[in-house]
Design brief:
Strands 2, 3, 4, 5 and 6 form a 5-stranded antiparallel β-sheet that branches. Strands 1, 7, 8 and 9 form a 4-stranded antiparallel β-sheet that branches. This protein has 226 residues and is an alpha+beta fold. The N terminus is likely disordered. The chain folds into 2 domains: 87 residues, 2-Layer Sandwich (Translation Initiation Factor IF3); 114 residues, Alpha-Beta Plaits (2-Layer Sandwich), CATH 3.30.70.2970. The longest helix is centred in the last third of the chain and has 26 residues.
């Protein structure tokens, strides 16, 4: 009876060792999924710049130019909800002690009035950007708040893409694992560990920021079987 117990215990220990070794046989691979998508939201932060020597006339011109810019976008077909008038910052140039020529400036006051266009109609906004030069003929100095990127293009539909992209990344990872398994005379078993990577959204290139590349890389460990 005692010897039978030793034999039985030896079987379980040996079987656990074999199972453990089997579980240790796995391959770690990465799966990629990419999508090229169009931005579905655009934000154009604008500065309207004015100068004057009298605060009262500056106030009148600020209100007038803000209204003209607002009317311009309404005429372009934008809805009121897509247009936002922001704050106005006024600085006294001659009070700037760090400016070596502060006493010689022609205009004492410099005002920058903020205006923002936020829309889902990318084509309309690009048309308005091209035609905004006509405001210069009215003496309106219109500039983008972000000079390095006048319009910010955003893609908001990531959650709709996530399920299919994760599925594609997993499928891609399994294809890589299967190639490795064939080369090592093994078969790909079940997933051991899956690590979903971060989703990234980047411009396709510098010239077409309205077209985005959505990308995810998943890291997956597949069990290998004989």
């Amino acid at each position: 009876m005692f010897s039978a117990s030793i034999i039985l215990a030896g079987y379980f220990i040996g079987n656990m060792h074999k199972t453990g070794k089997k579980y240790d046989r796995f391959v770690q691979v990465k799966g990629l999924s990419e999508r090229e998508v169009n931005a579905d939201l655009a934000v154009w932060p604008i500065n309207i710049t004015l100068t004057a020597n009298d605060l009262n006339s500056l106030k009148i011109n600020i209100e007038k130019q803000n209204d003209e810019v607002y009317d311009f976008f309404i005429d372009q077909g934008f809805e009121k909800a897509e247009l936002t008038k922001g704050s106005t910052n006024i600085s006294d140039v001659r009070a700037d002690m760090y400016n070596a020529n502060y006493r010689n400036n022609e205009f004492r006051y410099l005002a920058k009035s903020e205006f923002t266009v936020r829309t889902n109609d990318i084509t309309r906004l690009q048309k308005a950007l091209a035609e905004s030069l006509e405001l210069m003929s009215k003496g309106i100095l219109l500039g983008s708040k972000n000079t390095w990127r006048p319009i910010e293009y955003i893609f908001t539909g990531l959650n709709d893409l996530k399920p299919s992209m994760i599925e594609e990344a997993t499928k891609n990872a399994r294809e890589v694992a299967e190639k490795f398994a064939r080369d090592s005379d093994s078969r790909v078993g079940e997933i051991r560990i899956a690590r979903q990577g971060l989703f990234t959204i980047n411009d396709r290139d510098e010239n077409t920021p309205q077209i985005k590349i959505v990308r995810v890389v998943s890291t997956i460990d597949f069990q290998l079987e004989d």
